[in-house]
Design goal:
559 residues, alpha/beta, six-stranded mixed beta barrel, four-stranded parallel sheet, 20 strands, 31% helix
Length: 559
């Protein structure tokens, strides 16, 4: 799984605060949206999201989008009378604490919810007492007047949604920033009600995972170490890579990558190449001869979604499970990825369930254990999709929140138990601009492409075949750079050429580009198009949860 490279910090922040990793925003029924570092209209996680958000705006909701770049969603906010807050990268937590300062100081918080359903409010209020808008303004680049206005609007408009996704989390302070953002939802009591941040009612298959052979060596990625006290189960990718380079805690000898372009996905491309060159055996299972597959000893053709089965619990607010079914058999006679993994396990001597049964049997067992019906029953349903009861709200009134206290936690007992600050204080991120490299570099996703996987698709590349370097119009003028000019982008980690996109839609001290371009492999169409953004970042992991820090880096740009 790729969680470590995506939204681990977001999961951490919301789970430690309200007990659920992925609450979902009810944009359609809200009256106020405050979104940190997420572009739902283009970085489309689920196909239904854009319509839901646009319905909310059409119904009169106000949208405030916090992002260094005026994204498609920020542009839509301005069109509907909302706001784009052009924040300095990595300072979202400071803004959230300043908003809390105003809401608490002016007694605009939901006193009933806070009194009955939260813990740690007194300590949190003491923390934010000094986090005034005047304190946050020079840190975030957002004026104190604007911070006060947004805080008052957020607290007095009901229902309201506070949400964030990967943008704020992909910094070295992402975990605590996510907690500070999540705290705002509890402060205004806008949780698990229509038009707020909803805790999905999820039911699905019950998958059986075989017990690991014992004893196991220490994890090579330090996932269970004190260095990353709340590392996600997906692991700490950059630490696994460090082990391949340094041999500490020990030297891995082989790696198998299944639908993972390790070279392009893990921040700091040069380190990824160095790490793979140290291995004795590399196996890549992929649909393209990617940069990682090029370095492999064995390349196994992967499958597309049209060639395999999958059980899909959908990310909506009510329980749904759909069955993805193969439309055609794998085109090259290869086995789907799950069969590859199953056969590999059997060849290694792990003749245990579920490796020793067919995948269809495994899905049948999982459905019966989790939902009480089998694979044949799911296939027989319209669209091979089971839909449970509708969305239920205010579930915490009977079950409490899934936290140790069963309440919304401004102060986390789990953090305290690990010797960490139980309150979501602001700590500056790392590797920002310097005199040598004065511009912060960020990246983002767009609807036309998926990660780095679609750059060999001729039709999509006709729409967008190059990721331009966005640079603020005033900054470009001082550097003598015009729109469309070829420029050099450079820092201590990498140097490359890029085409400048001169615009007012990005913070003056920030440059950025769409992630996933700049291939030298992955097919003839993909090769040589655009610039690889991953080469310019240090390649560190977030301090608490181990999230890959994709958006901490700085560079200089010249014509």
């Amino acid at each position: 799984q790729h969680s470590n490279l995506c939204d681990v910090a977001r999961k951490f922040g919301f789970e430690k605060t309200l007990g659920f990793q992925r609450p979902l925003a009810d944009f359609r029924n809200t009256k106020y949206m405050l979104i940190f570092g997420w572009n739902p209209l283009s970085a489309t996680k689920w196909a239904h999201l854009p319509r839901i958000l646009l319905d909310g705006l059409a119904n009169g909701a106000k949208l405030v989008l916090v992002d260094p770049r005026c994204s498609e969603t920020a542009e839509k906010a301005l069109q509907y009378g909302g706001r784009w807050l052009a924040i300095k990268p990595g300072t979202d937590g400071a803004l959230a604490l300043a908003l809390a300062n105003v809401i608490i100081g002016e007694k605009l918080y939901d006193a009933t919810f806070v009194a009955n359903w939260t813990v740690g409010f007194t300590e949190f209020a003491a923390l934010v007492a000094t986090k005034t808008p005047e304190w946050a303004a020079p840190i975030t680049g957002i004026s104190a007047t604007t911070i006060r206005t947004v805080a008052r609007e957020l607290a007095t408009t009901k229902p309201a949604v506070v949400d964030a996704w990967s943008g704020p989390g992909q910094h070295m302070n992402g975990a605590e920033g996510s907690r500070a953002i999540a705290a705002l939802a509890g402060l205004i009591g806008q949780v698990d009600k229509p038009g707020t941040l909803v805790l999905p009612g999820r039911k699905g298959p019950a998958f059986t995972v075989p017990a690991a052979p014992s004893p196991l060596p220490a994890r090579v990625d330090r996932q269970n170490s004190t260095q990353y006290p709340f590392a996600h189960s997906s692991g700490v990718y950059v630490e696994a890579r460090e082990a391949m380079i340094t041999g500490h805690p020990y030297m891995p000898r082989a790696a198998i990558f299944v639908m993972q372009n390790f070279v392009f996905s893990v921040p700091n491309t040069a380190k990824s190449l160095q790490a793979l060159n140290n291995l004795e055996l590399i196996v890549s299972v992929d649909t393209h001869l990617s940069e990682t597959a090029q370095m492999a000893d064995y390349v196994m053709p992967g499958t597309t979604y049209l060639e395999r089965y999958e059980l899909l619990p959908q990310w909506v607010t009510f329980p749904v499970v759909a069955l993805r079914q193969p439309v055609v058999p794998p085109l090259f006679g290869q086995k789907p990825e799950y069969e590859f993994v199953k056969d590999l396990a059997l060849a290694l001597g792990h003749n245990v369930y579920p490796f020793n049964v067919s995948y269809e049997t495994f899905m049948d067992d999982a459905l019966k254990a989790g939902l009480g019906f089998g694979l044949a029953d799911l296939k027989a349903k319209p669209g091979a999709t089971w839909i449970g009861e509708g969305t239920k709200y205010n579930k915490y009134l009977t079950t409490g929140f899934a936290t140790p206290s069963k309440k919304f936690e401004f102060s986390s007992s789990q953090m305290k138990d690990k010797g960490l600050n139980p309150l979501p204080d602001y700590v500056p991120t790392e590797d920002g601009p310097t005199s040598a490299y004065p511009l912060h570099i960020i990246n983002w996703k767009e609807a036309l492409h998926t990660h780095s996987r679609t750059m060999n698709n001729r039709w999509l590349m006709e729409f967008h075949g190059e990721n331009e370097l966005w640079i603020n119009i005033d900054k470009a003028r001082t550097l003598g750079i015009g729109d469309g000019d070829m420029v050099t982008v450079e820092n201590q980690y990498g140097k490359a050429r890029a085409r400048a996109k001169v615009t007012r839609r990005i913070h003056p001290d920030v440059v950025g580009m769409v992630h996933g371009f700049g291939h030298w492999a992955a097919g003839q169409i993909a090769q040589g198009k655009g610039t690889n953004d991953g080469q310019f970042v240090p390649g560190k992991a977030e301090r608490i949860c181990g999230m890959g820090a994709h958006k901490d880096g700085a560079m200089r740009v010249y014509k």
